[in-house]
Amino acid sequence: MNEIEKLYDTLRKVQEPQGYFFNKDKERVFELLEALVANRERYGYMACPCRLASGDRGEDRDIFCPCIYRKPDVEEFGSCYCSLYVSTAWNEEKIPHVYVPERRPPEKIRF
Q1: CA angle 22, 103, 89 (to 5 degrees)
Q2: d(Cα 62, Cα 5) in Å, to the nearest integer?
């Protein structure tokens, strides 16, 4: 089992009991997990792969995966911003798959 598969199993065991499931598109999930590992190697923490991290641990604390925006995103849209974590209803296509708007404050967003 490689590092990404181990991370997948570990996160799944921790997050599913809390009601957060991986997107059923396993290829997408593994791409995001690879990006999380790359961010961990780059910054020393797993910053959200769909956002640009600053490299400042304190400034990026809100986007440590799972980010603080995941809960309201999944509650409102059935999916987090990058669609790594989703609800059962989202995976079962019982709710529409819509664009999840960025919740991170503009002053924290890097370009």
Answers
A1: 35
A2: 25
pLDDT < 70 stretches in the chain = 111
69: left (phi over 0), alpha (psi -120 to 50) or beta: alpha
State the pLDDT at residue 109: 83
Give the whole-angstrom CA distance, residue 27 versus residue 66. 19
Torsion angles phi and psi, residue 67, rounded to 5:
-75, 165
Q: Are 77 and 43 in contact (CB under 8 A)?
A: no
Tokens of 90: 């989202």
pLDDT of 107 reads 87
Q: Is the peptide bond prior to 66 cis by the omega test (within 30 degrees of 0)? A: yes
Which own/partner contact pairs does 42-48 have at CB distance under 8 Å and 24+ positions apart? 48/81, 48/82
Q: pTM for the full model?
A: 0.94
Token output for 40:
């961990």
